[in-house]
């Protein structure tokens, strides 16, 4: 009987203490382990099976969470399977080195389709973009990307390729999937003028969007349009020796980004006026961002 009374008294004291100081926050208790797990997540391993919800640390030092179970797909390429993840439990690219005011200064006559919000939303697909290296490296990469975009679109004015006579040429019938949207459906669109059926297929597969059957999304959805440009920038070498992203973060210089985007037509003295146009824009945008453009500007 004495033991029961003692236990009851202790329970009453515990209840009084909780009422006095307040119960622990359920949300805080739930969030803390998840955030800690992200910060101590294992390194991503290609080919290893990951269940939905798994958190990994990629080679760029950033964290990703599996939206869908997958056999070790690359988090920066297979964005349908993976999403960016922060140690504080958030997701996406929370900051961009180019402010909206600077963006507007760079593109004073831009088409209303190319929104700043569309660009910043698209960066979540490639969180290493303009977030790798020191502040100067990040700003140089952003300036380089936007300078090439400026050249490809006439200052973010054109959404689609202007020479309609080229439209039927961008269908490679040798591809097993053909051109289901039509012979003339894969013309240049978006900030880096995505073209050819195989590029729409590859970009769509990487982004988890069916661009092979619906290439018009690139000219109708600003975030999709920006994502296709960032897909090319971060994953494709084109006629160059490296991706434009790697060229900027590894110090190879702006000239290598030109080579990767249109080197077959512009580099090695083929079209110096076009190269000069890109370089001038890059210098101007670097000045707006307050960073030295660095060396190796030409290709």
What's this model, at a glance?
With 299 residues, this protein is mainly α.
Report the sheet with the most strands, covering strand number, pairing sense and barrel closure: 3 strands, antiparallel
Number of beta strands: 3
Alpha plus pi helix count? 11
Uncertain runs are 1-38, 88-94
Reported by name, the CATH topology of the largest domain is Lysozyme
Strand-pairing-aware structural class: mainly alpha
The secondary-structure element order is HHEEEHHHHHHHHH
CATH class of the largest domain: Mainly Alpha
What percentage of amino acids are in beta strands? under 5%
Question: Domains counted in the coordinates: how many?
Answer: 3
Radius of gyration: 25 Å
Mean pLDDT: 84
CATH architecture of the largest domain: Orthogonal Bundle
* Share of helix, binned: 40-55%
Span of the ends, CA to CA: 91 Å
Shape: globular
Could you please describe the fold and organization of this structure?
This protein is 44% helix and 4% strand. With 299 residues, the protein is mainly alpha-helical. The protein has three domains: 61 residues, Seminal Fluid Protein  PDC-109 (Domain B) (Ribbon), CATH 2.10.10.20; 119 residues, Lysozyme (Orthogonal Bundle), CATH 1.10.530.10; 58 residues, Endochitinase, domain 2, CATH 3.30.20.10. The protein has a three-stranded antiparallel β-sheet with strand order 1-2-3, with helices on one face. Helix 5 crosses helix 11, helix 6 crosses helix 8 and helix 10 packs antiparallel against helix 11. The termini are far apart.
């Amino acid at each position: 009987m004495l033991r029961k009374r003692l236990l009851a008294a202790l329970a009453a004291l515990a209840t009084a203490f909780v009422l006095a100081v307040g119960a622990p926050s359920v949300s805080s208790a739930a969030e803390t382990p998840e955030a800690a797990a992200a910060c101590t997540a294992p390194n991503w391993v290609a080919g290893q099976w990951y269940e939905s919800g798994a958190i990994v640390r990629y080679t760029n030092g950033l964290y990703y969470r599996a939206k869908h179970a997958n056999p070790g797909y690359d988090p920066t390429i297979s964005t349908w399977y993976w999403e960016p993840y922060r140690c504080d439990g958030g997701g996406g690219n929370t900051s961009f080195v180019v402010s909206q005011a600077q963006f507007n200064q760079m593109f004073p006559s831009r088409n209303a389709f190319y929104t700043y919000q569309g660009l910043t939303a698209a960066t979540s697909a490639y969180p290493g973009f303009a977030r790798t290296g020191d502040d100067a490296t990040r700003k140089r990469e952003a300036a380089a990307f936007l300078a090439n975009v400026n050249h490809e679109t006439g200052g973010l004015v054109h959404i689609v390729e202007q020479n309609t006579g080229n439209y039927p040429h961008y269908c490679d019938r040798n591809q097993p999937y053909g051109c289901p949207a039509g012979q003339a459906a894969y013309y240049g669109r978006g900030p880096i003028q995505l073209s050819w059926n195989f590029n729409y297929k590859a970009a769509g597969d990487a982004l988890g969007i069916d661009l092979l059957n619906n290439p018009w999304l690139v000219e109708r959805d600003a975030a999709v349009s920006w994502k296709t440009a960032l897909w090319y920038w971060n994953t494709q070498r084109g006629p160059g020796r490296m991706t434009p992203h790697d060229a900027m973060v590894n110090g190879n210089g702006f000239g290598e980004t030109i080579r990767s985007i249109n080197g077959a037509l512009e580099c090695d003295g083929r079209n110096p006026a076009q190269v000069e146009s890109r370089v001038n824009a890059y210098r101007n945008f670097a000045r707006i961002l307050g960073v030295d453009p660095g060396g190796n500007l030409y290709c």
